[in-house]
């Protein structure tokens, strides 16, 4: 690698849309009979994938191979699982298991050496049960759960690379992401921000769209502004309290 390739390209920002989350299905009595742990109720898969879904596939996301910029994804499962940290060094970046309970999974993404980027970490709450209209998870009877089909829980995000090395920028430029569809192409709508919707309770295969990406960006901007407003509010409160403290100190000293 030449020295020029190790120079950061200032003022350049590159985004790569991804999704992370899980899908889960209820085990039938026949499947449970074959398990080492008969108390397990679900088979689930947790994954990191490209955000766009292939038009002819029933897999959520995964239209693009992320191996060109991701070196490894480490999934930290519950400690009750054998070898709870699962390192996946090539696509598909996913882990499949069976279990009976929901828990938080740590997802650590390491990038290829050429990137010069630090690893990033996400957290995902494994979801096994469908949402009710109130927005709470519901554990339905076995027959109902099987009829509903897979439960999906996915989060859209964008990995942002600021001022990338020239060599890494060349890699990213050579692998543009497949654009998200402008509108849904599947009959079952899906939206992680509205789990209590009728559509989200019906099962089916979800799909992220450009419209949802826009909504997510707007929600993030609203949240950012709210954080700034709260920071300003507490800063003003702190200044007022410090002034009050100084006043009380002067009164105590009689100055």
From TrEMBL:
Pfam families: YEATS. One of its GO terms (biological process) is DNA repair. InterPro entries: YEAST_sf, YEATS, YEATS_dom. GO terms for cellular component: cytoplasm; Swr1 complex. Residues 8-175 form the YEATS domain. Signal peptide: none annotated. Residues 210-251 form a coiled coil. Its main location: nucleus. Component of the SWR1 chromatin-remodeling complex and of the NuA4 histone acetyltransferase complex. This is Protein AF-9 homolog. It comes from Piloderma croceum (strain F 1598). The gene is YAF9.
């Amino acid at each position: 690698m030449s020295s020029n390739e190790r120079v950061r390209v200032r003022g350049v920002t590159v985004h790569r849309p991804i999704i992370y989350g899980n899908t889960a299905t209820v085990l039938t009595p026949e499947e449970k009979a074959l398990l080492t742990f008969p108390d397990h109720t679900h088979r689930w898969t947790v994954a990191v994938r490209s955000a766009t879904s292939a038009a002819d596939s029933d897999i959520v996301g995964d239209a693009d191979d992320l191996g060109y910029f991701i070196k490894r994804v480490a999934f930290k499962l519950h400690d009750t699982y054998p070898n709870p940290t699962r390192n996946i060094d090539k696509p598909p970046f996913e882990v499949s298991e069976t279990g009976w309970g929901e828990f938080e999974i740590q997802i650590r993404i390491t990038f290829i050496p050429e990137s010069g980027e630090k690893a990033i970490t996400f957290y995902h709450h494994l979801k096994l049960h469908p949402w009710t209209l109130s927005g709470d998870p519901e554990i339905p009877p076995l027959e109902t759960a099987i009829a509903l089909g897979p439960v999906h829980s996915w989060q859209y995000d964008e990995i942002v690379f600021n001022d990338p090395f020239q060599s890494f920028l060349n890699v990213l430029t050579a692998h543009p992401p497949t654009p998200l569809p402008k509108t849904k192409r599947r009959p079952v709508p899906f939206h992680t921000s509205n789990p209590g919707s009728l559509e989200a309770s019906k099962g089916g295969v979800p799909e992220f769209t450009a419209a949802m990406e826009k909504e997510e960006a707007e929600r993030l901007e609203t949240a950012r502004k709210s954080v700034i407003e709260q920071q300003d509010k507490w800063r003003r409160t702190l200044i007022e309290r410090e002034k009050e403290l100084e006043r009380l100190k002067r009164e105590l000293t009689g100055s």
